[in-house]
Design brief:
Four copies of one chain form a homotetramer.
Chain A: H1 3-18, H2 25-32, H3 36-43, H4 46-67, H5 73-90, H6 92-103, H7 105-110, H8 112-133, H9 138-159, H10 165-176
The structure holds a DNA duplex (21 and 21 nucleotides).
Keywords (chains A, B, C, D): DNA-binding
Organism (chains A, B, C, D): Flammeovirga kamogawensis
Domain HTH tetR-type (chains A, B, C, D): 1-61
DNA sequence: TATGAATGAGAATTCATTCAT
DNA sequence: GATGAATGAATTCTCATTCAT
C-alpha cells in the first residue's frame, strides 16, 4: 500500500471537511497512520501537500476533457452539465475545498499559478464549445457560462440550505441545450 | 475616535486582505493601536469580532434595500446591477472577505445563523422584484439571478485575471433590463 | 520578582553551559519557571533573547570603563589585567559563551552589529591607554594586546587542561607594567 | 571520484560556513550528491563525520611538522609564522571551523580527546623550538606564543573587520625573529 | 474603559538515524 | 557500497484567551 497516496487521500478529505487552515498535519498523520516526518519527506511542507492535491484535480479535469470528443457541441454541453450536477451532489465537500482554497487570500496565494493554469484550461475547453454554437460571442458566453455554474455551486454548497438544485438543472438544460 | 469602531474598521481590512484564520488578534491590536484586552472586552472572542463584522454588512444590505422603492422592477434591477458592479470594482477585498468566510467550513460555522438570515433577506428582496416581472417562475429566476451575480463576483475576484467585467455588465443589462 | 530578569539570568547560565544552539527554549522555561509564551512575549524570538544577553554584557563593559579614571596608564592596565584574570577564573563559562557566540557563524550573524559595537568600544578604550604609553605605535599595540588576552582566554578555557594561568598572568604584568 | 572523500570535502566546507550544529546531514547529502544512508554507512553518525574531519586536520599538522627540519630555531619560527598568516588569509573559513568546534561546549565534547591530542602535539613542537632559544622559560614562552597566534586568528576572523593583519605579521616577525 | 504580562495548548517543521532493498 | 522511505522525538514559534491592575 502506497503511503504517499494514502496521505493525499486522507488530506483531501480532511481539508475538504474542515478547511485547509483548520486541518493540522498531526491530524492528517494520525488519520493516515503515518509519521509526521513522512509528510515533509514527500511534500516538503503543508503548502506542498495542498499544491499536490490541487494540481491533481486539475489533472483529472484534463483527462476528462480528453474523453468527450462528441461531434455535437450540444452533446458536449449536455455531458458537461450532467457531470457537473452529478459531482455537486456526490462530491460536495471536495468541490467546497476548491472554492474555499480559491477564495481565501492565503491559500489562494499558495496555489496562485495552479489556479491560473486551471482557469485557462477550463476557459479554453468551454470556448471551444461555444465557438461552434455562437462564434461571434463565444468569449463572453464562455465567461458567463463558467460564472453561472460556479455561482450555482457556491449557492448550493455554502449559502442556501434549500437551493432547488434539480429545478436549476432543468432550467440550465432548457436554456443551453433545448434552445 | 471610538476605539470600538476603530477595531472593527481595522479588523475588516485585515480579515479581507489576509483571511480570518490568518489574521491574529495581535496584529489587529497593533494596527488599531489598542490593547489585546480591549478586543475581548468589546467582542468577547475573535469569533465575536467576526460576527459583528459580518452582521454589519447584512445591516448595510438591509438599509440599501429600504432605499430603493422605485415603482418599476426594471428600475430596481438596474440600480441593483449598477451598485453590484460598482462595489465589485471599489470594494473588491471586502467582497472577497464575505465569499471566503462563507465558503470556508470553519468560518462558515461561526456565522452560520447570520448567513441564513442574510440569504433569506437577499432572496426575499430579489423575489419581490421577479414577482412583478414573471410571477410564475419568480422563485427559480431569483435563485438563478443571485447565483449568476455570485458566480461573476467569484470569477472576477478570485479566478480570472482578465475577466471582462465591463462586457459582462453590458450583457447582464441587456439580458435582464432591455428584454 | 521580575520574570523577564529571571529568564535572562537562567538563559545566560544555560547558554553558557551548553551553548546557544544546544539549549532549547523549553529548557529555559522549565528552569526559570515561566511559560514558553512569555519568552516570545518579551524577546520576540530565541535570537532576540541572545541579543539581549549579548548587549547587556556590552553594557557592563561600558559601565566598567567609566569607572576607572586612574591618572596613570600603568595603573589602568594593572586594574584591567587583574579583573581579566579574575573573571577568567570566576566567570569562565560566561566568557566561553561570548567566545562561542562570536566564533560560530550562525550565532555570529545574529549579533553581528553588537559584536561590531563591542569591538569598537574595547578597541577605543584600549587605545586610550596605549596612547599615553607609546603614542606612535598605539594602534598596533592595542590590537596585539587585545589579541593576546583573547588568545589566553581561548587557550585556558577551551584548549589546554593545564594552562599555567598564574604564571601567564605574572608574565603579562612583567611585560606590560614593570617594563 | 571516491564518494567518501566527496562527503568529507563537502561537509568540511558546509560545517565551516554554517557551523556544525546548523548544517544538516540532508544538506551535506544533497550538496555531495549522495544518499543519507551512505553517510551513516561510512561514518556511523554525524558526530563521527565531525571527528573524521577534525582528526584529518590534526594529521595535516603532523605532516607539516615532520617537514621542516631546519637547523635554526629562528628559521623554523619564520616558516611557521609565514604559513600561519598564509592560511589565515587563504583558509579562513576552515580555521574558523576549528575555533568554533573547540569553543562550543557541545562540539567540544564530541572531539574532546582529539583536541587534547592536537594541543599536546602543537605544544610539544612549539616547545622544541623555544627550548633552543630560551631553555629556562621555554614552557611559558610556548604557551604565550600559541595563545598569541590563536588570539590573532580569533580577532582577525571573528571580531575586527579591519584587523591590520599585515602589520601584526611584521610586528611578530620583529618580535620573535629579528631579536 | 483600557492595559499588557502571562498562560498553555497546539502549530509546522527539522533532523539524526534506521532499515529493507 | 548505495539508496531513500520511514520514523519519532524535539524544536521554535503562534495565538486566543485570561486576569490583575
Amino acid at each position: 500500500m502506497d503511503k504517499k497516496e494514502q496521505i493525499i487521500e486522507v488530506a483531501t478529505k480532511l481539508f475538504a471537511k474542515k478547511g485547509f487552515e483548520n486541518t493540522s498535519i498531526s491530524e492528517v498523520c494520525e488519520t493516515a497512520g503515518v509519521s509526521k516526518g513522512l509528510i515533509f519527506h514527500h511534500f516538503k511542507s503543508k503548502n506542498g501537500l495542498l499544491r499536490e492535491i490541487f494540481s491533481r484535480t486539475t489533472n483529472d479535469i484534463k483527462k476528462n476533457n480528453l474523453t468527450h470528443k462528441a461531434e455535437n457541441p450540444y452533446q458536449i454541453l449536455s455531458l458537461l452539465l450532467n457531470s457537473f450536477f452529478e459531482q455537486l451532489k456526490k462530491d460536495s465537500t471536495f468541490l467546497q475545498l476548491n472554492v474555499s482554497v480559491i477564495s481565501q487570500p492565503t491559500t489562494r496565494e499558495i496555489v496562485k499559478d495552479l489556479i491560473d493554469e486551471r482557469a485557462a484550461l477550463i476557459f479554453e475547453s468551454t470556448k471551444k464549445i461555444f465557438n461552434e454554437i455562437d462564434p461571434i460571442n463565444s468569449t463572453i458566453r464562455s465567461y458567463m457560462f463558467i460564472a453561472e455554474l460556479d455561482g450555482i455551486a457556491l449557492n448550493y454548497l455554502s449559502i442556501f440550505n434549500d437551493f432547488p438544485i434539480e429545478e436549476i438543472k432543468s432550467e440550465l438544460i432548457k436554456k443551453y441545450i433545448q434552445q
